[in-house]
Design a protein that fits this description.
InterPro entries: DPNP, Inositol_monoP_metal-BS, Inositol_monoP_superfamily, Inositol_monophosphatase-like, Inositol_monophosphatase_CS
Keywords: Hydrolase, Magnesium, Metal-binding
Radius of gyration: 19 Å
Strand order of the largest sheet: 3-4-5-6-7-8-9
Number of strands: 14
Strand content: 15-25%
Low-confidence stretches: none
Cofactor: Mg(2+)
Number of helices: 9
Bound molecules: adenosine-3'-5'-diphosphate, magnesium ion
Distance between the termini: 47 Å
Largest sheet: 7 strands, mixed
Shape: globular
GO molecular function: 3'(2'),5'-bisphosphate nucleotidase activity
EC number: 3.1.3.7
């Protein structure tokens, strides 16, 4: 099968990173939030997860750039040596060759640029959810000529379809598969059918600053979804749509940050996992999300994710909403 090596390497790396995150959540009473320049949080688990995945990608595909969310500039500072020692300790539990020096280098392997073939990585998507004890995801995708070819979404805290921890894997043209946290295949997954009214619920962020709740609920109502939204951190929302547990995920620009542009690593893996499960993804104007340009999707506004059948109706409701 095409992309089989990429798929296997990505699954193994994402699961290893997800285990590191689980270990940090179990062993640290409250994982420390380190503040980034934009004042958003990052933790030793984000750094450890990025180190592990970048190490695996660099070993298997040395010429592929990785466009990751994090970098090691802060961790390299002398006053951060305790945190770096902790990151190294968690990485070593999975990758015994790790030293503080290799760990920062592995993390910075994720400073690559968008090119004709690259990986994009969110080592922890939903860091705020991770810190709160809620949902988070490890998200990894391979993009070629702007087209997502492989996507792995590991959601260690998600309980769905009888699984404690959900790993979804998609390869373009090959469908979306559900795996256990141990990497065992369970079944292929499909989005909800339009007759399945009970499952046509909608999902949105927990963080009110990451969307526009009032417009989101107005649009959901306009397309006949009357139940309250399910609020979930991270790309676990894409997993809910791919597995048919929700029919719609709306992420409309927040009135508090109208100039915010979505980042590729917050979407790439989720998009493929939903599309290969039969769903559809676009921005709020119906444009496809652009993964060919840079780490920010400059020309897209908002994100609409659906089971496919309701997508055009949602876009119409959006065009008509003030
Ligand atoms: N103003 C904003 N609008 C939309 N997304 C934002 C945002 N500020 C931060 N984010 C992104 O929202 C992501 C979390 O998504 P969600 O709200 O669905 O849980 C964050 O990912 P990280 O947690 O990886 O930093 C971050 O990239
Ligand atoms: Mg993210
Ligand atoms: Mg992140
Ligand atoms: Mg972040």
């Amino acid at each position: 099968m095409v992309y089989d090596t990429e798929k296997q390497v990505a699954i193994k790396a994402a699961i290893a990173a997800a285990k590191l995150c689980q270990q940090v959540r179990q062993q640290e009473i409250t994982p420390e939030a380190i503040q980034k320049k934009d004042r958003s949080p990052v933790t030793i688990a984000d750094f450890g997860a990025q180190a592990l995945i970048c190490q695996a990608l660099a070993a298997a595909f040395p010429s592929d750039p990785v466009v990751g969310e994090e970098d090691a500039a802060t961790l390299r500072q002398a006053e951060m040596s305790d945190q770096l020692a902790k990151v190294t300790q968690y990485v070593q539990a999975i990758e015994p060759t790790a030293t503080p020096e290799t760990v920062v280098d592995w993390i910075d392997h994720g400073n690559g640029q968008v090119t004709s073939r690259y990986w994009t990585l969110d080592p922890i998507d939903g860091t705020k959810g991770f810190l709160r004890g809620d949902q988070y995801a490890v998200a990894l995708a391979l993009i070629e000529a702007g087209d997502i070819k492989v996507g792995v979404l590991a959601c260690p805290a998600l309980e769905m379809s009888g699984q404690q921890g959900v790993v979804l894997v998609a390869v373009r043209g090959q469908g979306t598969e559900l795996l256990t946290m141990a990497g065992q295949p369970v079944k292929s997954v499909q989005v909800a059918s339009p007759e399945d009214k009970e499952r046509l619920r909608f999902v949105e962020s927990v963080e009110s600053g990451h969307g526009d709740q009032s417009q989101q609920s107005a649009v959901a109502k306009a397309v006949g979804i009357t139940a309250d939204s399910i609020r979930m951190d991270s790309q676990a929302k894409y997993a809910a749509v791919a597995m048919g547990e929700a029919g719609l995920y709306l992420r409309l620009p927040s009135p508090k940050s109208p100039d915010y542009r979505e980042k590729i690593w917050d979407h790439a893996a989720g998009v493929l996992v939903v599309e290969e499960a039969g769903g559809r993804v676009s921005d709020m104007n119906g444009k496809p999300l652009n993964f060919a340009q840079s780490d920010r999707m400059q020309d897209n506004r908002g994100v609409v994710v659906s089971n496919g059948t309701i997508h055009d109706t949602v876009l119409k409701a959006l065009a008509a909403s003030p």
